[in-house]
Design goal:
By secondary structure, this protein is of the alpha/beta class. The chain is 50% helix and 11% strand. A six-stranded mixed β-sheet has the order 2-3-4-1-5-6, with helices on both faces. Helix 4 links the parallel strand 3 and strand 4. Helix 11 runs parallel beside helix 14.
């Protein structure tokens, strides 16, 4: 009987909670023109640090958030990874790894992405998976990486060495910038989509980029470095010619983006 009462209470509370979410989000007006902020999160670019600069406004971080998909703190609604909630637009800040072409964002959304030198990004991904494999049985693993168990399946890409990793890594993990912004891995399409974002940040300048975002969005953003996962032993070959060859389209995309952004500054 008690279980049934609790279930009925939840069913009654759900519509009220959703109405509360809509009420909060309807009041957001960021920098006088935006209703919400969305981050196209490319893995291993420092995107979690960008997320944390916004999560900090709600008084929480990656560890306290854990794997919660929607959080309401200090009158702010935060969404993580749920496509339907992202497309509905009832939030202050949202992020996901979903490719841009799989989402239909509502108007008046301020969009952000963080880019990184493709070679450095792949090397970081390799080191990250190595750390995951080393620490899967670490009792403190969730304090360092809440998503360690879901990521562990990807350690199969590691193989025996870095060359084996390059043989095994799927295309969408290797060419992640292109995958995020073009279904067909088109350099031109990805370039146009990236340049259409409200803000383009870079790993190498993330601190100053977040400061610029803070001014542009009129929000007290501060960079928050959430994690530094350093594997005990990882061997990267000195000769990265093969990696550079595999990343040729992304390296070209990265160069074109930098050139276009420089033109806009001048």
């Amino acid at each position: 009987m008690l279980t049934k009462i609790k279930s009925n209470f939840k069913n009654l509370a759900r519509p009220a909670y959703e109405a509360y979410i809509k009420h909060l989000s309807s009041r957001y007006l960021i920098a006088g023109k935006y209703r919400r902020i969305y981050h196209y999160h490319i893995r291993k670019t420092g995107g979690t640090s960008l997320n944390s600069s916004f999560w900090n406004l709600g008084g929480f971080n990656l560890q306290s958030k854990q794997q919660q998909r929607r959080i309401v703190k200090k009158g702010l609604v935060f969404v993580h990874s749920v496509s339907s909630l992202i497309e509905e637009g009832d939030y202050f800040f949202a992020n996901s790894h979903h490719p841009a072409y799989q989402l239909s964002l509502p108007p008046d959304t301020f969009t952000i992405t963080v880019l990184r030198n493709p070679i450095k990004r792949v090397l970081s991904f390799y080191k990250y998976l190595t750390w995951i494999k080393e620490n899967i049985n670490n009792p403190n693993k969730f304090l360092q990486e809440p998503f360690i168990e879901s990521v562990f399946k990807e350690t199969v890409f590691l193989g025996e060495d870095f060359d084996d990793f390059l043989d095994k890594i799927p295309k969408h993990h290797l060419l992640t910038h292109l995958h995020m912004f073009s279904r067909e891995y088109s350099i031109q399409e990805a370039l146009e989509k990236i340049l259409s974002c409200s803000a383009v940040c870079f790993t190498e300048t993330l601190d100053s980029d977040i400061q610029s975002l803070s001014k542009k969005l009129e929000l007290p953003l501060v960079e928050k470095r959430e994690r530094k996962l350093v594997p005990n032993s990882v061997q990267i070959p000195e000769n990265l010619d093969r990696l550079k060859l595999l990343l040729e389209p992304e390296l070209l995309l990265f160069e074109q983006i930098q050139n276009e952004l420089k033109k806009n500054i001048q």
